[in-house]
Automatic annotation (TrEMBL):
Catalyzed reaction equations: ATP + H2O = ADP + phosphate + H(+)
Record family assignment: Belongs to the DEAD box helicase family. DEAH subfamily.
The gene coding this protein: dhx40.S
KW Membrane (keyword) present: no
InterPro entries tied to this protein: DEAD-box_helicase_OB_fold (IPR011709), DEAD/DEAH_box_helicase_dom (IPR011545), DNA/RNA_helicase_DEAH_CS (IPR002464), Helicase-assoc_dom (IPR007502), Helicase_ATP-bd (IPR014001), Helicase_C-like (IPR001650), P-loop_NTPase (IPR027417)
SUPFAM superfamilies linked to this entry: P-loop containing nucleoside triphosphate hydrolases
Name of the protein in question: RNA helicase
Species of origin: Xenopus laevis (African clawed frog)
Amino acid sequence: MEKSVRSRRREDNESFYNPILPIHKWKDELVRAAKDNSFLIVMGDTGSGKTTQLPQYLYKAGFGKNGMIGVTQPRRVATISVAQRVAEEMNCSLGSTVGYQVRFDDCTSERTVIKYMTDGCLLRNTLADPDLTKYSTIVLDEAHERSLSTDILFGLLKKQFQLGSRKRRKYPLTVIVMSATLETQKLSLFFGNCPVVTIPGKLFPIKERFLNLIGPRDKDSTAYVTETVKVTLQTHLNETEGDILVFLTGQAEIERACNLLFKKAEAIDYRHDLYDRSVEGLLILPLYGSMPTDQQKRIFLAPPAGIRKCVLSTNIAATSVTIEGIRYVVDSGFVKQLNYNPRAGLDILEIVPISKSEAVQRAGRAGRTAPGKCFRIYSEEFWEKCMPDHMIPDIKRTSLASVILTLKCLEIHDVIRFPYLDHPEEKHILEALKKLYQCGAIDRTGCVTKLGHFIMEFPLSPNLACAVIKATSFGCQELLLPVAAMLSVEHVFIQSGESQKQKEAGQGHEELSQLAGGCNDFATLLYIFEQCKTSPKPAAWCHKNGIHWRALKSALNVEKQLKEIANRLKENKDFPVEKFDGPRNEMLRHCLCAGYFSNVARRSVGRTFRTMDGHGSIIHIHPSSALFGKESQLEWILFHNVLVTSKIFVRTVCPIRYEWVKDLLPKLHDIDAYELSNVAREEVTAEEILKWESKEETKHRNDGTEEALN
Ligand code: CDP
Ligand code: MG
């Protein structure tokens, strides 16, 4: 039976058009509804064909004549793979009629009509074209994911519509919001009671089992990785035909699990003398966000006869990507999330239990083509006590600095009364305003400064953009652009694991950091970049040094693009030019201070440091840093990001001199969020501003720098 399913799939792959997708029956109704309404919501289960088919229906119905059909996705990897698939279905080359745009990778042309892009890209594109005149239709896909950019786009499109941008456009814009689950009523209400078209899905029965390997007490442990691997192997050995989908949390972990799986599969096969069910019987494929495109494609291909495909994926396979033939799901129960930690005042990448509705969604992936099974490695108690009913949308969890700057650049000053689908907490917005004020992107009146506009030009976080701008104004951008590029690609280092080869790779990293000067993780990144760029055989160099060549390849490409932006900005007469001379290593760190002074910490007791931003959190240097173990020799440090496990760890760290930040640190304290709140609401009068300014001046005179530091 399974064989016949597989051979049918092969044929599908040849013709590339799948007429049995549930959405097919709704084609005419969808096209009609899109013609009759400015806003439309389409709700349909994952895999029903929304993402790949609806844009094609619209295209064939002539929607592309007056502008592009833009389709957003929250994830980069899904954007590319979907565009690829649709180009194949439409029998055109990628970048012609069908194209995609993700950060640092634009694969579109004059001819492009169906454009898949990340929601972040569309948001950025609105800066240059606020009325979206290039588009006839905007499809906001995966609305249920509630990613930050999609949420902001909801508000923007609603607002634009209210403001009558239709008058400024030659043709009216059609907005379609697509969602796999939930909240369609709420969305409909938000968009003025717009119609909802529901595509009923077809799901085979799924047996769900709690395996009790993880309980509430394991909430903060990483034991789930090995348990998940064990369950995956048991599934392979005990269950009948059908592919396996395993949910884990991130790239490094998935790579580790793949390795464990290889090793364990070998051991088990040896012990059981089951040669034919050895690791070759299991086609192990990782799937995560930063994966190279050609590798992603393998995920969708049917495995060779007699081989079971096993995909180890991040949450991306829960809704964004549908893999046919999955009959078994192994759910670790965890997901990696960026959470704004108000206590630390930072965005922190955390591994947290998934919500119950996400668990249901994950299980559903097992029943698309036949009855399936879902193995949950956790217990029912874990389900009850640790897993919330629903996921909290990004807008309530992550730092808003970047999107608020985007809104401000779009001349939406009243960021508090912006039409949010879910209103973020006011103090959260204030925190973002404060951050923007601190890095000089907005002024006291909440208006975007020249620097703010320059920051916006770079598709980087405001901190990093600021550091790059500083370097450019010093004329030493060749130090910072590679670092920014290296920080923009994921996982440069091959993770050190248990194998001999990986251990060697780990030692290689230490050697590299020594060669780069020994005590600066940013300099190590720069060193790797430069070595790679000048090496005659860069791929071999990376391999030898335990570096992901693909990551480096994209870093080289990203650096080129950042350089173009920097060169363009330098032409601008308002672009600052400053002088600073010193050794390379100092210049680099000095520039970093300009962007990262809110991420500065001072040695406290033992090996700990205390942040300087008013939160005064206690932090530790992560063992992956070259500074780990050298804490006693350090006084002031600057860090790029934070990881929380049992403690708060900082990663990518360098030592700095107090004198480089001493003029900057008071900025962390010189404005009260409440004052910016009045500014944000636009209720402020010129008189009030003057009053604050004189108050601030007195405060400055009184408190001096030292107080701010203590
Ligand atoms: O968006 P929705 O979840 O409703 O479905 P879709 O992504 O349009 O997927 C429709 C079908 O296309 C599924 O059967 C997928 O397996 C298939 N597909 C694929 O084979 N390769 C891709 N890159 C994307 C989708
Ligand atoms: Mg989809």
